[in-house]
Write a structure and sequence with these properties.
Elements lengths: L5 H5 L4 H40 L11 H20 L1 H32 L17 E7 L4 H12 L8 E8 L3 H9 L6 E6 L7 H10 L5 E5 L4 E2 L3 H11 L4 E5 L2 E3 L6 H24 L10 E4 H6 L10 H11 L3 E4 L4 E3 L5 H22 L3 H8 L1 H33 L7 H20 L6 H5 L1 H21 L11 H9 L1
Parallel strand pairs: 1-2, 1-4, 2-3, 6-9, 7-10
Antiparallel strand pairs: 4-8, 5-10, 6-8
Helix pairs in contact: 2-7, 3-4, 4-9, 4-14, 4-15, 9-15, 11-12, 12-14, 12-17, 13-14, 14-17
Length: 497
Amino acid sequence: MKRGTWGAILFEGDEAAYAARTRDANFIAASETFERRLADAQAFGRACNGLADRHPELSARSGLTTGQRAGGWAIAGVLIISLLLAPATISLVAVLFFGGYFSIVILMRMCATIAAWAAPPPKPMPRLDDRFLPVLTILVALYREPPDVIAALIKALTALDYPADRLDVKFILEADDDATIEAVRRQSPPANFELIPAPAGEPRTKPKALNLGLDRARGEIVAVFDAEDRPSPTQPREAVAAFQGGPRNLAVVQAPLAIHNGGSSWIARQFEMEYAILFKVWLPFLARLGFPLPLGGTSNYFRRDRLQRAGGWDAWNVTEDADLGMRLARFGGRAAMIASPTWEEAPVQLHHWMTQRTRWMKGHLQTWLVLMRDPVAAAGEMGLVSLASVQFTLGGILLTSIMHGPIVLWLLLGLFTPWVSLAGWHAVLFGAGYGGVIAAALATRKAFPALALASLPLYWPLLSIAMLRAFWEIRTRPHYWAKTPHGEDARKRRKKR
């Protein structure tokens, strides 16, 4: 017998047994490798198409249904024929419709403003004992992030007032994004941080990455943050306390988002005002009424079982947050707001704002179209009143964005040219809308510069441009995710030093 290997020596001549054992060991190793790769491939499939396969009627993957296409063409045809036959009548009906619709939207927002003024300051929640804190999974999708943003993110997450042994942080990175992967590795994150590579493949969206993280989540509660976020250290405990003190069907808790760089540019200031009204006035009002929330894309906390029951995130919707807020309501879940904020960075340059807002408008349109594929079913699931509220919340975002530009142009023509005659109620309605926004901005209890308030009407037509771009993109590249650069403001300040 040749004793050329240690294995042969250990088997003392039984080379057949050694060879069999080696084959078994190789087979087991190969099987384990295959099972691991199979699990990864299945997880990627679920991340991309889990919702679309299980509930295709709730996913934006398939786009417009045949009925929606036929209905759209039918409405367009009727409008064209009616305009040709009775233009004056159609114009009057259109003015009355939009006037009535915007009057309801303005009234709802005024009610929200009054509620915000009347609301007492939030009471501090009692600090929960560490023994009663559940495991919390935090998901952060990262893509093309600068090293300074990564460093600040890790610092902010490690500063959270939550036991490290109950904090499960998942960074989901695109497998071909070498720069971001290297930036994260150089920071040497703590042991409770896990890096999850997302294979390159379509759709390349944030919700796909979040689904991959959800597949590996250990927590009973799952939270989502963005790379530039700086959450208040007390926020996770407040969210957990809200779940423990709320009803069992409380599916999601949204923390308010606040802008820290509003003074960087005019567009950043307008963005800051918009966010303040949304998260301090509008969403708290909807939450108190029990209506579905078009969630923010970050700083939301979910019961994992409710999130999974609703199908996770739709990888094919480019505003997965608003879509998920509607879908959770359809699955019987409620939403609530808490007070601890997350600080975010607003786009400083107009073209970055425009790119981001185009994606938002496109995703809101996707969300509304999915909801309206079968409005009878949607009303049965979320309730008729809730579905009606969505037409003035999510639908209001879309319709006002479409109409802002034309309305401002029409008013200017009426004021400065003889071509358009304005009725008194037109000016009253516009003034009520404008005044309502200023009142809502003041209700946030944040001091905004007078120039920012005065220049609001210049901001609104930009929404119409973004909406037109969204209509074009939903036709040409509906699932394209336009990346918003992070850390731009900090780098700009460093250059000035």
